[in-house]
Amino acid sequence: MAVMLRLSDEQWERIRAHFPEENIPPGRPGRKPVPTRRVLEAVLWILNTGAQWHMLPQSYPNYKTVHRRFQQWCQQEVLREVLTELANTLRDQGDIDEREAFIDATFASAKGGGDEIGPTRRGKGVKIMAIVDRHGLPLSVSTHAANHHEVTLVQLSFDFYMIEAKPEHLIGNKAYDSDDLDSKLKKQGVEMIAPHRGNRKLKTQDGRALRRYVRRWLAERYFAWLQWKRRVLVRWEDYPENFLGFVQLASITMLLKRF
């Protein structure tokens, strides 16, 4: 028997303004509109289990309705709006501290087709990029073709940044050791902190700043949390915005737990 996933009343009230009910004119033939809360809970079941849409239990709305509504939310960037509002509310409450942030990426294989999929030695797939605060809470989540080097995706990650103030310090691994990146971020008021690559000739990193690197596990913990949601382990979606939508929804569930 399938386990039902439910949003608490408090969680639903916090986000419901972003999920208007479907407006079907009175007298129009056909089924009555499905309550949006039930649709969202059905998508959460797919996110958690990683199951195919047609395997949605009968206790939820029809899978075609759920899939259609989910695609609408992804196309209209509804989930990004929810994530942004939650992050800013937590920051206003003092629960997000962006002065020190951590950046990292993880690989997800892609079994279907579609755009923004790239070949790698591990097979074709996508990269999930994330910037998290010093509590491990997401400040930016995005997805990109896996054949892009992480250092080239930092600026794109900031395009998905959810709060107004950028971090004073951004900490990453050796993949982010780049003079060009350091220079670009410095102009934006951000200090990039990353260990030197083994082949670097001119040392530029202050050893004292590298003490912050010991907390980079916060970014790794975010991905560990994320990957409990089975639907983001593999990209099955043909449309990149749908896969990003699942990543954003997983991050929403993380932030909702902080209220």
UniProtKB/TrEMBL annotation:
Residues 99-232 form the Transposase IS4-like domain. GO terms for biological process: DNA transposition. One of its GO terms (molecular function) is transposase activity. Residues 7-82 form the Insertion element IS402-like domain. Pfam families: DDE_Tnp_1, DUF4096. This is Mobile element protein.
